[in-house]
Design goal:
The complex is a heterodimer of chains A (about 130) and B (about 150).
Chain A: E1 3-8, H1 12-24, E2 29-35, H2 38-47, E3 52-55, H3 64-72, E4 82-86, H4 91-99, E5 104-107, H5 112-122
Parallel strand pairs in A: 1-2, 1-3, 3-4, 4-5
Chain B: H1 3-21, E1 26-29, E2 40-48, E3 53-60, H2 61-72, H3 81-101, E4 110-111, E5 115-116, E6 127-134, E7 138-145
Antiparallel strand pairs in B: 1-6, 2-3, 2-4, 2-5, 3-7, 6-7
Helix pairs in contact in B: 1-3, 2-3
Classes of the chains: A alpha/beta (about 130), B alpha+beta (about 150).
Chain lengths: ~130, ~150
């Protein structure tokens, strides 16, 4: 089973890095979509089937917290698992994001294999079933 | 906290980021003279929290290009100037985040969006800086930190 992924980060370089790591992660990736902020991401989600969202927090226009609040309030989107990928390592921020419904929280910098591991965990074992 | 403590935290933060996502090691403290006369790229990010301040990095363009190529998985010859700038800004953002997490106060900091810094690297009172010798090239990291609020 291939998973469609949405990467949300205002840095084009970071989006490209994550896309590259996903390709090497061992998780079968279908469509890899991206967005530069939360508002753009909501538009992508309403137009595409997405299995998992990877989001930064610190972004212009609509940040990661605001994005997650919007997702939680939308019955069509609230069941999509979200993985936060952020430079912020504070317990307070992690608790806040997990409280908003994030399935896991990965801090930057991360090793490429860490992303694959967290994805596998969030996708509940489905991620590596074809490997 | 003493200047040397900040320098140590800046070095370990840069080492962690460069090792894990740029596949480059920090070999030792660098020497400013090794980068003299070279064209330069710099980026900075400001932060607010229990302490406020700014954090920045600078490197010769040759080093910045190598780092961008490693991060993006492309040949150096294919790296565009805009990509190099984006990667360098992201590097400043990640090193700053790693540094703030090492201050040990478990506080939430708000970071600005990293931006290219066209000004010369700051110096003077309140600025702590450190030159790092990388596997390939030199990197300068600096910090200007306000008092605890």
């Amino acid at each position: 089973m291939a998973f469609n992924v949405l990467i949300i980060d205002d840095s084009p370089a970071m989006r490209k890095f994550i896309r590259r790591v996903l390709a090497l992660s061992g998780v079968e990736i279908g469509e890899c979509l991206d967005a530069a902020d939360g508002q753009e991401a909501l538009n992508v989600l309403r137009a595409n089937w997405v299995d998992i969202v990877l989001t930064d927090i610190n972004m212009p226009n609509m940040n990661g917290e605001q994005f997650m609040e919007k997702m939680a309030g939308d019955p069509l989107l609230s069941s999509i698992p979200v993985l936060v990928v952020s430079t912020d390592r504070s317990d307070a921020r992690m608790k806040r994001m997990l409280g908003l419904g994030a399935k896991d929280y990965l801090t930057k910098p991360f090793l490429p294999e860490q992303l694959g591991g967290v994805l596998g965990k969030v996708l509940g074992g489905r991620a590596h079933e074809n490997n | 906290m003493k200047t040397t403590d900040f320098q140590s935290l800046m070095t370990s933060s840069a080492d962690e980021v460069l090792n894990s996502m740029f596949f480059v090691g920090v070999e030792s403290n660098g020497d400013e003279s090794a980068a003299a006369g070279e064209e330069w790229m710099a980026a900075r990010v400001s932060f607010r929290g229990p302490r406020s301040g700014a954090f920045g990095i600078g490197a010769p363009l040759t080093t910045a290009r190598t780092l961008a190529a490693n991060f993006l998985g492309q040949d150096e010859a294919d790296i565009q100037d805009a990509q190099m700038e984006e990667v360098f800004c992201e590097l400043s953002n990640m090193i700053c985040g790693a540094f703030l997490s090492r201050l040990g106060d478990e506080s939430v900091y708000d970071l600005s969006h990293p931006a290219r810094d066209d000004a010369a690297s700051p110096a003077g009172e309140g600025v702590v800086s450190q030159w790092l010798q990388l596997d390939e090239g030199q990197l300068r990291v600096w910090l200007r930190m306000g008092p605890l609020s």
